[in-house]
Amino acid sequence: MFIEMVRSKIHQARVTAADLNYEGSIGIDTDLLQQAGMLPYEKVLIADIENGNRIETYIIPAAAGSREIQLNGAAARLVQVGDRVIIMAFAYVPSPVPANWQPRVLIMDDNNQIKQTLGDIITVTS
């Protein structure tokens, strides 16, 4: 049996832009992706701290160093620029889950700079 576990999380990132006319997805600074261990085109779940909306989409890479967090397409209707969001990536893990399982967590400041990093980048092997 496999259990879906949170593998990586960017916590309290600020939405920097929202574009209703883009085809969809979330643009994330590639430096943040690397630090979080997330991948371009990976499926993610986004929770908006300000309004409780939950959005499922995929990542597109944004310019390194831009600190961009941009929601696009239909998701742009569910957020406001300046909202804090939690971006979560998951992995299917064989059960029983290792006792030391801890996701990689980036805790962000108001300018999308990393304030604190918890956990290691998790690699799951089959």
What's the CATH architecture? Beta Barrel
User: What would the CATH topology be?
Assistant: Barwin-like endoglucanases
CATH class category label: Mainly Beta
Number of strands: 9
Alpha-carbon distance between the termini? 13 Å
Give the biggest beta sheet: 9 strands, mixed
Shape, per Cα inertia axes: globular
Strand order of the largest sheet: 2-6-3-5-4-7-1-8-9
User: Overall mean pLDDT score?
Assistant: 94
Detail the poorly predicted runs. none
Reading the helices and strands in chain order gives EEEHEEEEEE
Itemize the secondary structure elements and their pairings.
Blueprint (H helix, E strand, L loop, with lengths): L1 E13 L2 E3 L5 E5 H7 L6 E6 L5 E9 L6 E4 L11 E11 L9 E5 L5 E5 L8
Parallel strand pairs: 1-8, 2-6, 3-5
Antiparallel strand pairs: 1-7, 3-6, 4-5, 4-7, 8-9
Describe the structure.
By secondary structure, this protein is mainly β. It has one domain (2-118): Barwin-like endoglucanases. It is 6% helix and 48% strand. The chain has one helix at residues 30-36, and strands at residues 2-14, 17-19, 25-29, 43-48, 54-62, 69-72, 84-94, 104-108, 114-118. A nine-stranded mixed β-sheet has the order 2-6-3-5-4-7-1-8-9. The chain is globular. The two termini are 13 Å apart.
